[in-house]
Design brief:
By secondary structure, this protein is an alpha+beta fold. It has 17 helices and seven strands.
Length: 417
């Protein structure tokens, strides 16, 4: 019969001194398998010897623990091992996960990159912008192991973000990424993220008085671009990215490539049928504006000693130094101070064009054509009607241009009197 090992006591451990030549090991008789090691340097560590899956193994309990704490931890460890847990392997996995995360493997950022490299992400026309937005808003979690990221942590980041609109967009972009990742075992939590509440979108249009106050301040590259928006009703992105190769002043048309048009179709419909080019008829006012812009660009190049012709791929609206018109927020703020017309964006220009066209007698389906909608007259009618009403489109935009001239001209005459 094996001799029973007596339990260790706190008093005995307090008196115990390390051996300068070897590691000492003491067995506690109170908890089966519990042992304490004391190295020559005086370090005290506790371990637990017991069988796991038929193999005798040593499991780490902790270091520098008191006797009572060591016994409590050892009993909890025995229970979990009997239930099938493997604490040693779990710790190894966590260390490996942390090491991998430091070099970018298995992080939430790597999951985001994997999604946009997959067929699901590559099919998105705005994939680059979505990736940048997600990484910006959820930056605190990008370098963390993806398996450790929880829904609650992400939600707190959403709630605390200073920009409601950015957080809302990033949340909308992240949801399909997490759904895709969970199906592939890249994340473990069940994510149920809420977008922050946003105010109702401001669908305003300019009054006649606002147009009269705004028009004299529409100078320079940004001002010319806004005038062009009011003459055509297109989206800001289309105007900013317009090139001279898309414009035919002799025919009075501007052709926007279908690939650069905003795709408002449902996700399951995108990519199945490419968007067709949008041909925008140019009013006399729009043509005159583009001619002025063209001459101004030639003059700018001459001043800089650049004798090259304007290339077809060259943008129509360029900054004073020839760069892209990008800082619209700053320009809008400056313009509000000069014009007194506040709280507006490029969408107000589109709404104004649609309103002016309606005031001139354009029916709703022509307003839809002006806005560049794919489904003219509704989705059902669009299945049968493939016409784009070019003549009516041109007449409506010419009426808008004439009406703008009348509004601005009337105010100018009134001021002169």
């Amino acid at each position: 019969m094996a001799k029973r090992v007596p339990p260790l006591s706190a008093a005995k451990l307090a008196k115990l001194k390390p051996d300068p030549t070897k590691t000492l090991e003491l067995v506690d008789g109170a908890v089966p398998g519990l042992r304490m090691r004391i190295t020559p340097a005086g370090t005290k560590t506790w371990s637990l010897n017991m069988r796991a899956n038929g193999v005798m193994r040593r499991f780490e309990v902790g270091s520098e623990l008191g006797l009572a704490d060591a016994r409590t931890k050892a009993l909890d460890l025995r229970k979990s091992i009997k239930e099938g847990a493997d604490p040693t392997q779990e710790r190894r996995n966590r260390r490996l996960q942390a090491t991998s995360a430091k070099i970018g493997i298995g992080t939430l950022e790597s999951v985001v990159d994997a999604y946009f490299s997959s067929p699901s992400g590559r099919a998105l026309r705005t994939g680059g912008e979505q990736s940048r937005r997600v990484k910006s808003v959820f930056a605190p979690h990008m370098r963390r192991p993806a398996e450790e990221v929880t829904s609650a942590q992400l939600q707190l980041t959403i709630d605390a973000h200073q920009s409601v609109s950015s957080a809302a967009r990033a949340t909308a972009y992240l949801k399909p990424i997490l759904k895709w990742a969970r199906k592939r075992g890249l994340v473990t939590d069940t994510f149920d993220l809420e977008k922050p509440p946003e105010g109702a979108p401001k669908q305003r249009h300019f009054t006649d008085d606002e147009l009269a106050a705004l028009w004299p301040t529409l100078t320079g590259p940004y001002g010319n671009c806004v005038k062009f928006l009011l003459y055509t009703g297109v989206r800001l992105s289309s105007a900013v990215n317009a090139t001279w190769g898309q414009v035919d002043l002799l025919k009075g048309i501007w052709t926007i490539p279908g690939g650069s048009l905003k795709d408002t179709r449902r996700a399951e419909k995108r990519g199945k049928k490419p968007k067709v080019d949008l041909v925008v008829p140019l009013s006399k006012q729009a043509q005159a504006l583009l001619s002025e812009v063209h001459q101004a660009e030639i003059a700018r190049r001459q001043l800089q000693g650049d004798g090259r012709d304007i290339a077809p791929e060259g943008r129509v609206f360029l900054g004073d130094r020839g760069g892209r018109l990008a800082n619209w927020d700053r320009w809008l703020k400056s313009n509000a101070e000069r014009s007194g017309v506040t709280d507006w964006s490029a969408k107000a220009c589109r709404s104004t064009v649609a309103t002016l066209a309606a005031n001139c007698g354009a029916p709703p389906h022509i307003a839809s054509v002006i806005m560049g909608h794919a489904n003219i007259g509704g989705q059902l009618l669009a299945v049968y009607n493939k016409g784009r009403y070019f003549t009516e489109h041109a007449e409506a935009l010419q009426a808008v241009g004439d009406q703008l001239d009348a509004i601005v001209g009337t105010v100018k005459r009134g001021a002169a009197q």
